[in-house]
Amino acid sequence: MPTKTEGVEPAARGSAWRPGSAKIDVGILGATGAVGQQFIALLANHPWFRVTWLAASERSAGKRYGDLSWRLPTELPEETARLSVEALKAGAGPHLVFSALDSSIAGEAEIEFAQAGHIVVSNSRNHRMDPLVPLLIPEVNPEHLGLLPLQRKVKGWSGAIVTNPNCAAMPLVIVLASLRTYQPKRVLVTTLQGLSGAGYPGVASLDATANVIPYIDGEEQKIETETRKILGRLVADAVELHPVAVSATSTRVPVINGHTESVSVEFEKTVSHEEILAAFRDFSGEPQKLELPSAPQPPIVYHDAPNRPQPRLDVERGGGMVTQVGRLRACAVLGHKFVLLSHNTIRGAAGAAILNAELMAARSLLG
Ligand SMILES: NC(=O)c1ccc[n+]([C@@H]2O[C@H](COP(=O)([O-])OP(=O)(O)OC[C@H]3O[C@@H](n4cnc5c(N)ncnc54)[C@H](OP(=O)(O)O)[C@@H]3O)[C@@H](O)[C@H]2O)c1
Q: Catalytic residue among 46, 127, 144, 167, which?
């Protein structure tokens, strides 16, 4: 049976951003890593943003970007290749910076940039669970941007920090959000995570090849806690965590890009197989309504074929921004189970942060 993914593309990359106005300059912190390179690839020809400033560690600082190793199959844009990599220096660089910094450095560095007035749209884990920092998925919790005025007031920053979730939490939350009406109560998830999720150079080839590593440091806790924050309600300037209980097992598998997840869910309310399929199909959010340039249309795609989605065949669908689901069936323990797939460095990282910034631009929050 054919899969239902034909024609799924991100919204046209030509949507108007204040027609006639110039593109917004953006910088990338951690521009040389796996996620940093994905930012550069996704921002090439972006209708609203243009990359004008790059920063990384002292190892890369002072070098021309084009002289460093480019590891993506798309061409490195010439105007980016010409830029010289800067050392991390808050106050330098454009007002809007995307952060793809290693978490060993991101915590402090992002605060320094926010203090210096930058809007930091980050991938790193360090500030995700800070009660005053939005942990944002524009389709799921755009109202959490309402934390920003309080963040500025309490922390005294003239800039701000907004984060996107862990790459394995991302697709799980999108799918649970589509089923929110039925009140997800308990979730069991086992992940099979691609190698690019470990950054570059990542896992040693002798550990990764023809193998499964049943442990990823810190990953299970991120999936279990971030899910509850993102699905939580913003009540009186604070996010009330969602009551769903999530139990995660994370594994690393020899796949380059793409996190596959086997998920079982119990709901408070009774829900049929057909109602779940309809919820996947009908799910949509503010990015789709606003036709943001990186918004996947639709955000969730369900595969009828019993052997899909597969990372090698499907991960690039919808520009890597679509959350793909298959194998919905009964679960003897929790009621319902399915498999999902998401591109970890696009929907799970750089693409997610760009969509966050697009939503902020559309809401005039980048000023
Ligand atoms: N990979 C994914 O799928 C994924 C998904 C979601 C979130 N994330 C998060 O995104 C961030 C980046 O991940 P990644 O996979 O791109 O990692 P990566 O490939 O290891 O890249 C790390 C980046 O941080 C820079 N860096 C390291 N130490 C630094 C220092 N002391 N000062 C300044 N820059 C420094 C590196 O610069 P040099 O090249 O100069 O060393 C490089 O640009 C991490 O926080 C990660 O947890 C990753």
A: 167
pLDDT in tens, 288-325: 999 999 999 999 999 999 999 999 999 999 999 999 99
For residue 98, what is the enclosing H or E element? strand 96-99
Ligand 1 atom nearest 345 alpha carbon: 3
Using one digit for the tens of pLDDT, what is the confidence trace for 59-113? 999 999 999 999 999 999 999 999 999 999 999 999 999 999 999 999 999 999 9
Ligand 1 neighbours by CB, cut-off 6 Å: 30-36, 56-57, 59-60, 88, 100-103, 105-106, 123-125, 167, 196-197, 199-200, 344-345, 348-349
Residue that is written with structure tokens 């691609």 in the block: 194
pLDDT at 19 over 80: no
pLDDT at residue 11, rounded to an integer = 36
- State which of 28, 32, 35 you would mutate to test the pocket of ligand 1, scoring each by most atoms of that ligand within 8 A of its C-beta: 35
Whole-model pTM: value is 0.95
C-alpha 246 to ligand 1 mean position (Å): 27
Tell me how far CA of residue 80 lies from CA of 50, 51, 75, 85, in angstroms: 10, 7, 11, 10
For residue 180, what are the contacts with CB-CB under 8 A and spacing of at least 6?
A: 231
Going by alpha carbons, the residue nearest to atom 47 of ligand 1 is 124
One-letter amino acid at 232 equals G
Residue 229: CB atoms within 10 Å: 23
Mean pLDDT, the chain, integer: 94
Is 259 known to be catalytic?
A: yes
The one catalytic residue in 46, 127, 259, 343 is 259
Measured between alpha carbons, how far is 201 from 203 in angstroms, rounded to an integer?
A: 7
Q: Tokens in use for 266?
A: 């119990």
Decide: 92 and 66 in contact? Cβ < 8 Å. no
Model pLDDT for residues 109-139, shown as the tens digit of each residue: 999 999 999 999 999 999 999 999 999 999 9
Domains of the chain: 9-166+350-362 (3.40.50.720), 169-344 (3.30.360.10)
127 is catalytic: no
Instruction: Identify the residue whose C-alpha is closest to ligand 1 atom 1.
Output: 197
The band of 235, judged by pLDDT with boundaries at 50, 70 and 90, is very high
